[in-house]
Here is the input.
Amino acid sequence: MLMLDQFCEIPDAVLRSVMCDTPNGVLIFDEAYRILYANRAALQMLELEAGKEYDVRELTGPLDLAVVDADAEKTFTMRQGNRQLHYRLISAGDAGESAVYALILMESQQVLRSQMELEAAWKLTSEMEEILEGSFDGILVTDGEGNVQFVNSSYERVAAIPRKELEGRNMRALINPVWMENSVAFVVREERRPVSKRQVTQDGRDIIVTGKPVFDENGKVKRVVINARDITEIFQLREELLNAKNRELQHYQTILSTTNTEREKVVAISEKTKKVFSLAERVGRFDTTVLILGESGAGKEEVAQQIHASSMRKDHALVTINCGAIPENLLESELFGYEKGAFTGASSSGKIGLLEAADGGTVFLDEIGEIPLSFQVKLLRVLEAKQVTRVGGVRAKSIDVRFIAATNRDLTKMVRDGAFREDFYYRLNVVSITVPPLRQRREDILPLSLFFLNRFNHKYNQNKTMTPEVIKRMEEYDWEGNVRELRNVVEHMVIMSPNEQLQISDVPWIIRQCQGPGETSLLPETAGEESSDLGRAVEELEKRLLLRAKAECTSTREMARFLNVDQSTVVRKLQKYGLSAR
Here is the structure.
C-alpha cells in the first residue's frame, strides 16, 4: 500500500503532470479565494484565460471554507453557461502561512452516467440473485479454488447442508468419507469439463450434482457453477411404476391362467377391440353379408368367428376359404364342386364344393381381394341367387349359407382401377367392420403377449415368464404384422430363449440389431456344422425362404412372384411345411 510519506517523495513535476492531464477539472485557491492554479480541464470547463487572476467565488458563488473538511464527501452544483457542473471541495494543506484548498470539477453527464451504470449494475445483480434464489434446483458457485461465492436456499434444502456452513467457506471443508468423498467442484477443476455425480445426503436422500467450469481469458478455471437436484422422488416413482407393472402382469397372468389356450382366441382389453367384437356380436344376429377390413394379421378371422358364434347358424359349420391360397384354375371346382368326368383327372364320383359343404352354416371368404376379376361375376351370382352349379353340371343347387368376406386391400381403389367389380363390392359391403392394427390398440399387446405365452408354454411344456423390460419393448414396437407377428415373436422366444425369465436379449428384433452385417443367414442353424444331410438342409432353406416371402407379401400370388415360381408351387410348399398361406 502507498503510504503518505512515500507519496511525499514523488517529485513535484510528476504530480503536476498528473494533475494537468486528469480529465477532471482542478482549481487550487487560497483562503482569500484567489485561484492559484487551474489545470487544462478546468480552463476548458470554466472558459478561463491562462495567466489571468480570478476569485473562485465568481465561479461558484458564496463559499464557506469553515466547513470544507466536514463536507469533503458532499457534491455541489454550479452552472457555466448552459452547462451544469458538479464539484467537491477539499482542504489541500498549507502553503506557507496561508491555507490552500482544492476544487475538483466533474461534468454533469459523466456523474449521471456513472450513477446510471452503477444503478444498472446493482439492479442486474439484484435481479440475477432473485432468479438464482427462485430456482427449485440448488445452485452453488465457487471460484477456481473451491471457495464458495454464492449459494441459494434451494441448495441448502437439496444438499441438506446449512447455508451458514457454506457461505465464505471452501468446499474442501465439507469433504468426509461418509456422504461426500469428494466435491464435484474439484473434479471439474481437474478434468476441465462438466461432471455429474450421484450423492447421498446426510438424511439419506439421493441427489444428482452437476458442476460446469467457467474459464477466464487465459483458459484457467475461474469459477465452477454447481447444480444440485433431488432425485429421491424420481427413484420412488420408478419403483412405484415397476411395482404397478408387476401388479398388472400378475393381474393378467391370473386372468389368463384360467383361459383355455387351445380354444379361446379373442383377447379384447382395449376399447377399440371391445367395440369391434361388440359390433360383431350385434351384427351376428342379422343374417346379412359382412365385409371385414383390416391389415394382414390384425385378427379379421377372429372377428368372423365371433360373428358366426353370435348367429343362429352357430351350430352349423363355419367354412373358411382362403381365396389367395387356391390357384386360379382350381377356384371354381373347389368352391362349386364338379360332376364326375367334368375334366381330365376329375374324380369318377364327382366332388362336392366348399359352398355346398357349408350349407346351413357360414362361409368366410378370406382375402376376397385376391379373387380374379373373371370369377367375381360367378361368385356374385351365388351371393344373389344362393345357388351353385357344379363344374360340368347343368342343374343349379340351392344353398343356405351366410357370407362373410375379409381383405387387407383397398377395395374402393381396386374398383376405381377396374381390378374389382363395383356390383360385387357393394354386394359384399352390406355391413363393414374395420379391425384396427395392433399399433393403434397398444393396450392389447400385454394381454395378448401373456395369452400367447401361456399357449406356447403349454404346447412346448415350458414355464417361461416375461420381465417388465421385455413387455415395455413389446408395447413400444409397431407390429407391422399385427397379432400374427406378435404370436410368432412370442413362440420364437419360448422356443429359442435359454432363460426362464425372457430378457431383452431374447427379443428377435433386438437380436437382429445386435448382429453384424455378416451374421445373418438364410441357412439352417446347423449349416455351419459338418453334415451330410443335404435333404434336411434344403428343406430348412426352403422353409426360411417361404417365411421371408410371407413377411414381404400379402398373398400367395405375390409370394410366387417374389420367389419366381408358380403359385401352385408356393401353395404346395406351404402345406408341406405346415405354414398358413397368410
